[in-house]
Design goal:
Layout lengths: L7 H20 L15 E5 L3 E6 L4 H11 L3 E5 L1 E3 L11 E4 L1 E6 H4 L8 E5 L5 E2 L14 E5 L3 H21 L7 E5 L4 E6 L9 H12 L10 E3 L7 E3 L9 H10 L7 H9 L3 H15 L5 H5 L4 E3 L4 E2 L4 E2 L1 E2 L9 H4 L7 E6 L3 E5 L2 E5 L3 E5 H9 L3 E3 L1
Antiparallel strand pairs: 1-2, 1-3, 3-14, 4-5, 6-11, 7-8, 7-9, 10-11, 10-17, 12-13, 15-16, 18-21, 18-22, 19-20
Helix pairs in contact: 1-2, 1-11, 6-8
The structure holds zinc ion (2 copies).
């Protein structure tokens, strides 16, 4: 987040960011992943001072790289969809299919540590705010942005959710592990891309159904064998499904409840304890929400979205969206995705900061500091520092 006030320091911020990003695209072009069927994709750029341009197309990675080095966008996007005519208007593009994509973002996890490392910054004048309000207390016009300096707990929580999602995808949806790509988003989340061609043609509704399954929206008591039965003395009956309890949601619920398939008595008693069919149903829905995956449904349902491209820099942090399939356990975004230059620059801090980047701890209390470009860019992107 680079604040948009038109002054000298804003200009200097942009100069630093552009030069750091350009150097990255020049030096680290191998990290940029060539999207499959690149010529069928729509690309979009966010430019530092000119906003978004969409409906771009590139025939090969060389063409794209040359443009990145020349234009130096703040953010680079590529469609998850394939089109016959990617540069045409949306209704004339002729949609062919789209990769299935999931977004796991810290904001959806509501982690308790969030408040410990959040700042409120004015989107207009860039000033940090002491208190929550509708507009900036200094310029009286700017909307307020929340920025976060994610901690280890955030990363641990996010990776746990990623593994949870991957478990659902493989064991419940039958997705092959080799078609699953896991990326750090470049800020405070992870993106999971499924390249399995079986899912390409799914429309938005079908993708929404997948989401419904993953978050446990439509969990029914009947699916674990509890039926309403007015005639019975308890008002309900328990009979385990013929296909068993060892698969999908049934397995997850059974595990959570601590029941096995040998006897229905335990489950029967539980339902009774919850006040019968309706009481247990409410309990089950709550439990399903707990067990389900926390994902952003909009991202998965949108089959025309342009999505941050793997290997490019996220201007919310200066970190790279980067693949981390094999080393997800040990992956540390503040180290492994921090790839900008280590030349030193002077910055003016807006708030005192404690931060660990690329293995180096920064504890900046004073107003000005001389720090490496990767740290300066990170803090400027977060709106917490400016070029001095
Ligand atoms: Zn302001
Ligand atoms: Zn945290």
């Amino acid at each position: 987040m680079v604040s948009s006030i038109n002054n000298n320091s804003y200009e200097k911020n942009i100069v630093l960011l552009r030069s750091a990003f350009r150097e990255y695209y020049f030096k680290h072009s191998k990290i940029i992943e060539i999207p499959e069927r690149i010529e069928e994709r729509e690309f979009g750029f966010m430019l530092f001072e000119a906003g978004m341009i969409r409906h771009l197309s590139f025939r090969n990675i060389g063409e794209l790289l040359a443009t990145l080095i020349k234009e130096v966008p703040s953010d680079v996007y590529c469609s998850n969809a394939y089109y016959r005519f990617p540069t045409y208007d949306m209704h004339e593009k002729q949609w062919v299919g789209a990769d299935l994509i999931f977004d796991i973002d810290a904001k959806d996890l509501h982690l308790p540590c969030e408040a410990m490392h959040s700042y409120i910054i004015c989107a207009n004048c860039g000033e940090p705010q002491e208190i929550k309000a509708d507009v900036c207390i200094y310029c009286k016009t700017g909307k307020l942005n929340h920025v976060s300096i994610p901690c280890n707990k955030c990363n641990y929580g996010l990776k746990k959710e990623v593994k949870h999602l991957v478990d659902f995808l493989i064991s419940d949806l039958g997705i092959k592990e080799k078609t699953i790509s896991i990326y750090f988003s470049g800020n405070n989340g992870y993106h999971i891309h499924i390249s399995d061609i079986e899912f390409h043609r799914l429309d938005s509704q079908a993708r929404s159904d997948i989401i419904g399954y993953l978050i446990g929206n439509d969990m029914m008591t009947e699916s674990i064998g509890i039926r309403k039965a007015e005639a019975s003395s308890d008002g309900f009956l328990v009979k385990f499904p013929k296909s068993g309890m060892m698969y999908g949601w049934r397995r997850r619920i059974a595990q959570k409840l601590g029941i096995d398939q040998t006897s229905t008595t335990k489950l029967h008693n539980m339902v009774q304890q919850k006040g019968g069919y309706s009481g247990f149903k409410a309990e089950l829905l709550k439990m399903a929400k707990d067990i389900g995956v926390r994902i952003d449904p909009q991202v998965t349902m949108d089959v025309h979205r342009i999505f941050r491209m793997a290997g490019t820099i996220n201007s919310k942090s200066g970190l790279t969206k980067i693949r981390c399939n094999n080393e997800i356990e040990s992956f540390d975004p503040l180290n492994d995705a921090c790839l900008l230059s280590d030349k030193e620059v002077n910055v003016e801090m807006k708030v005192p900061i404690k931060l660990k980047l690329r293995g180096q701890s920064f504890k900046i209390r004073k107003e000005t500091a001389r720090i490496p470009v990767y740290a300066a860019v990170y803090l400027i992107c977060k709106g917490l520092a400016r070029v001095n």
